[in-house]
Amino acid sequence: MMMTTSSSAGGNGRVAIVTGANKGIGYFIALDLALSGLFQYIVLGCRDAVRASEAVKSIQAKLAENVNDNCKAVQVSSESLTLGDVESHKAFVAKMEATFGKADVLVNNAAMAFKNADPTPFAQQTKPTLDVNYRGTVDLTERLVPLLKKGTDPRIVSVASMAGRLGQVSPALQAKFTDPNLTMEQLNDLVNQFEESAQKGTLQADGWGRSNYGMSKLAVIAATKVWARQYASDGIFVNCCCPGACRTDMSSQSGSRTAAEGARNAVIPATMENPPTGEYFADFQVAQW
């Protein structure tokens, strides 16, 4: 099992941003980062202001109970963020820049999924799913990169899923997604091709799988690998993870793992010493995509 250890950077002035952190896996990621002693500021980027306020108070209470004095100095706050809404992204990034002038860790946890019982036709679920889980994550991340470049030991961790497995697409498409020279422009084009096939009803013939959520997460994993290469010279470590089958609202409380346990898969690459980059973590260690 890969363990987390204290970074030499310490918590002094370091800022961790966690999106979708008002409940479930995101909440426990934010809590664990707050308790790690590696950050002075924890920011919860949340769509629901009421739940965000409750989450902040809950984390603050757990910090106050902790015997570690470093934890008592951690400041936890929330900021409005609707993933997939570019104007919301712009406002959030502007607030981070005005408040902190930098960011040290970004954990992309926010996402959405249609329930199996949802009557919305598959083709009508495609764009909303991609717009939030992939395009929203990409837009927000790339807007925050200038602040991460100013950070200490900066890292990006995106919460993906086992649903994003590479094997859901044809060998020809697998070769494109794993091309070591793949660019974000090319990746965006591949995602657009999936959406077009979904609208035309030709997914199987075109070599795609039949999961909008799975495709959105496959693309997030691919983006992780592109960013790792793109930002290596800036010293930004970029990884992603599968939290596992967790009991959360998104999974209708089905799964073998608690949200707290699943959160550790994101916390490890966010806090470990000498992290890899461009990797996919699952079951608390680097795993095969």
List keywords for this structure.
disordered N terminus, 289 residues, alpha/beta, globular, single chain, 9 helices
Helix and strand sequence: EHEHHEHEHEHHHEHEE
Rg measurement, Å:
18 Å
Number of strands: 8
Report how far the terminal alpha carbons are from each other. Answer: 18 Å
Strand order, biggest sheet? Answer: 3-2-1-4-5-6-7-8
Major β-sheet, in short? 8 strands, mixed
Low-confidence segments, given as residue ranges, are 1-10
What's the rounded overall pLDDT mean? 92
The outline comes out as: globular
Structural class: alpha/beta
Q: What fraction, in percent, of the residue positions are helical? A: 40-55%
Number of helices: 9
**Strand coverage percent:** 5-15%
Can you walk me through this structure?
The protein has an eight-stranded mixed beta sheet with strand order 3-2-1-4-5-6-7-8, with helices on both faces. It starts with 14 loop residues before the first strand and ends with a strand. By secondary structure, the chain is α/β, with parallel strands linked by helices. Helices cover 45% and strands 13% of the residues.
